[in-house]
Amino acid sequence: MYWVAGFASSRSFVVDLGRNQSPSFGLCGSDERRLFYGYIVAFPVQDFGGIMSGLVSDSWWRKTLYITGGALLAAAAYLLHELLSIRKEQELDSKDAIILHQFSRPKNGVPSLSPLCLEMETYLRMLDLPYQSYFDGSLSSQGKMPWMEYNYEQVCGTELIFDFLEEKLGMSLNKGLSAQEQAVVRAVTSMVEEHLYWSISYCQWVDNVHETQRMLDLPGPLSDLLKWILCHLTGGIVKREMYCHGIGCFTKEEVYTLLEKDMRTLATLLGDKKYIMGAQLSSVDATVFGHLAQAMWTLPGTRPEQLIKGELINLAMYCERIRRKFWPEWFVDLEDFCYDSDTESSSTETPSCPLNLRLFSRTDTLEESDLSLASHTRTHSEDSEHSGHTLSDSDIELDGSDEEQQVKG
User: Fold this and answer.
1) Distance (Å, rounded) from C-alpha 369 to C-alpha 379?
2) pTM here?
3) Where are the domains of the chain?
């Protein structure tokens, strides 16, 4: 039997057992020599169930090597992360440049599955402001997305970003509106962002999560597993935040009833006008488009798609009007604009390669894209016929014909 001897004391010390020297102890290697009191204790090794004897076995050395190797790998990963972070900070120079942080692009051609990200990017395009998108996944200091950097200042929240652009750059879509019209813009924006947003998110990440998972674009051999984990984590977050908001306390049918009321309110408010506030663009158009685009192109077979492509067809024409004017590289097949309950939503064709939408300035592509879109519309209307509710050519080409009508007038 092996025995281990030790010394027990009530205070911390370091024992110096040198030859022909009296013991000394002290914190931080003190040379001051003092007497100490304690107990000499001895205990058998085998009483600890083989734990102590295992420390001197060969398996303990292998475990030590594994732990040490894991620690070294973790340290290397941490250092690599820090180096990449430093490199990214050096690259993200926001000196007189708008940097928009948002979620990564999906693979179905839609710029974003987030209504707020699509709203913010569309607003920048409506203002014709050059910007650069970063899909690094980093949230703002408030834990939100999207957020913007400009001249090393960070702004989070769509409404606060709108105010920041107006204050710093003097750019706003609401300058020509009266005080009453601006009040309407704020009221509709609040309804969409604080009410319709949650029902759309519920339909995306809870009730239609499998279709949303299919749209995500994550590279790597474990992409399917990562997408499944991401979707279910996001769904749990959405349900928790909906409950905190209050709308999560309702049943599924009640949530869809509220969603339908919001969409019908927007359809009534729009009517046969070109934009929400009439002939002039405003910030509320970016907000409404960012949310309705999800119902148009990311929720196949759901009740929001049935509404917007069927009974509320004026909202579909409104979304297509904005898409054609400010997203010319975003191709959509017009066959998908008429909802047919007999056809399967999975037959929708998607582009084979993702779009490169990182850096954009509408002044570089607008004139050329308008011509190509107009010719595509004419050829499509001649070759195909649709039954039921469709998007007529006159409705889609309103943007391209406005200037000609003004000149003729």
Assistant:
1) 15
2) 0.65
3) 3-55, 180-344+353-400
